[in-house]
Write a structure and sequence with these properties.
The chain is α/β, with parallel strands linked by helices. The protein is 27% helix and 20% strand. It starts with 32 loop residues before the first helix and ends with a strand.
Length: 126
């Protein structure tokens, strides 16, 4: 999945706080990943590392999955989670719940049989 870099211009840089400007979308084009991410929750962010992983691995994070991710983060926060792995279909997404930041993402089949996630305190199946 190609992600239009211009559409991600409005995402906050890692550690940034406050509202982000909403980039304009050309008429007639479908939603970009950045548009879907902003609609899912204005505070949900992508780390640089996560963006590189999503680009390189061509992961499909459409609007539906982003909504499920947002709901999963809210659930983890309600239960006191701080660093969670969110399983969405074949995707595994590591999230800093307190900062509402996607840290990294991968296909669950990636990396062979043994996959180890460290420094997490919860798993959410979305």
């Amino acid at each position: 999945m190609d992600i239009d870099r211009a559409s991600l211009a409005g995402l906050a840089a890692p550690g940034a706080i406050g509202p982000r400007p909403t980039p304009r979308r050309a008429e007639g084009h479908g939603d970009s990943f950045g548009d879907a991410l902003r609609r899912a929750d204005q505070e949900l962010r992508l780390s640089r590392h996560a963006q590189k992983r999503i680009d390189r691995r061509e992961l499909d994070l459409d609007a539906s999955r982003l909504n499920r991710l947002n709901d999963a983060i809210a659930s983890a926060a309600e239960k006191g989670g701080r660093n969670s792995v969110v399983l969405i279909d074949e995707l595994a997404v590591v999230v800093d719940v307190r900062e509402r930041t996607v840290v990294t993402a991968m296909n669950r089949e990636e990396g062979g049989r043994n996959r180890v996630f460290t420094n997490i305190d919860s798993v959410v199946i979305a």
